[in-house]
Design brief:
Blueprint: H1 14-22, H2 27-30, H3 36-43, E1 48-51, H4 59-63, H5 79-87, H6 91-96, H7 105-109, H8 123-137, H9 139-159, E2 164-167, E3 184-186, H10 188-198, E4 205-208, H11 210-214, E5 222-228, H12 238-243, E6 247-251, H13 259-268, E7 272-277, E8 288-292, E9 299-305, E10 320-324, H14 333-336, E11 348-350, E12 353-358
Parallel strand pairs: 1-2, 2-5, 5-6, 6-7, 7-10, 9-10
Antiparallel strand pairs: 3-4, 8-9, 8-12, 11-12
Helix pairs in contact: 1-9, 5-8, 8-9
């Protein structure tokens, strides 16, 4: 256990402090530590959790484009964000950015980014946009800012005797090369400062990933977890993310051309499968999900309630995590609907197979 001085002055590394200041970000506010779903998990004794929110898919491009109009302010042109992008020389990068390369049309249309507070006014979208621009401006320094923010929340969790879970893909897939591959330089002096100020044990290195830097904290209760819609294989895929130290839940998109095959492959490789279902309020959760594709026998897996908490790493592997489809303000209902399974026991055709929910 590290000896800490929680009352010591907070001296951020100068490059981290400068990046946060340039984009009007604060260390405590970089990660979200309070929302109803996180609170449910903490109330169940699962421990504390924090999530990082950016603008998803092509939302940053829309926000910096003056011609973008939408009845929901959060989905429309955001002049303050456009001005910031222009001042930082990031307009071209913002217009080209796609934060969710694995998203389908239905996923992008009905994104949870605009549910809850995210769709009420432009405040949350502006904050998420500033974070996204900061990441584009300097991914490595931004990654170290995230490390310091994790440390800030770690101290709070430890003060309450709680473990801490960290989810960085709250509304996007993160840096272009992936959070699990982003290389950071953490000097011995910086690692020592993080330990003394926040009690977070950190491994220094010239090119360490966040998972490697945080590895000493894992036995003390720190968990990195996420959902991902990226493919199973490849340097950005689910297997690579898991191998790098993340607990990963694969996300199903019913409107993907390879929906059934991707879901079956993820389950067969030991991943949980997050499945959005358009359940009515109060409707019972299905107990099983059966998937089939031509040429292979059907596979039936049990379900768990994904809305009970967000602490996915506590769920068993090889299950279907049922997530009730949430209202995304301003969504094109016809475009968003195919992303979710219908709340019926009848077999539902997918582009490459069939999905059947069982009650």
């Amino acid at each position: 256990m590290l000896l800490t001085r929680s009352t010591a002055p907070l001296a951020l590394p100068s490059d981290v402090a400068d990046l946060l200041a340039r984009f009007s970000l604060t260390l405590p506010g970089l990660l979200t530590g309070s929302n109803p779903k996180l609170a449910k998990g903490e109330g169940l004794g699962h421990g504390a959790a924090v999530i990082l929110h950016h603008l998803p898919a092509r939302a940053l491009a829309a926000a910096v484009t003056p011609a973008t109009a939408h009845p929901v302010a959060a989905r429309a042109h955001l002049p303050a964000l456009a001005a910031l992008a222009d001042a930082e020389g990031l307009t071209a990068a913002a217009l080209a950015w796609h934060g969710c390369p694995g998203a389908t049309a239905g996923c992008a249309a009905g994104c949870l980014n605009w549910s809850g507070r995210g769709g009420l006014g432009s405040g949350p979208a502006l904050a998420r946009g500033r974070r996204t621009l900061a990441m584009l401006a300097d991914p490595a320094t931004y990654g170290r800012a995230v490390l310091w923010a994790i440390a800030w929340h770690w101290r709070r969790a430890q003060a309450e005797g709680l473990p801490l879970a960290v989810r960085l893909r709250g509304t996007d897939e993160g840096p272009r090369i992936g959070w699990h591959r982003l290389a950071l330089t953490v000097t011995p002096a910086e690692a020592q400062a993080l330990g003394r100020r926040f009690g977070l044990p950190v491994a220094p290195g010239d090119a360490v990933t966040l998972a490697a830097a945080l590895a000493p904290a894992a036995p003390e209760g720190l968990t990195l977890y996420d959902y991902s819609k990226l493919p199973l294989s490849g340097p950005l895929g689910l297997i690579a993310q898991r191998a790098a130290g993340w607990d990963i839940t694969a996300s199903m998109a019913a409107d993907r051309l390879t929906a059934a095959a991707d879901a079956l492959a993820a389950i067969s490789h030991g991943f949980r499968l997050a499945v959005p279902v358009a359940l009515a309020k109060g409707q019972a959760l299905p107990r099983t999900l059966t998937l089939s594709t031509p040429g292979r026998p059907p596979l039936t897996v049990p379900t768990v309630d994904g809305d009970r908490s967000d602490h996915r790493y506590r769920d068993p592997h090889g299950v279907a995590v049922i997530l009730r489809t949430k209202r995304s303000r301003g969504a094109d209902a016809a475009l968003a609907a195919p992303f979710s399974l219908a709340p019926t026991a009848h077999p539902q055709p997918l582009a490459d197979g069939v999905a059947t929910l069982g009650w």
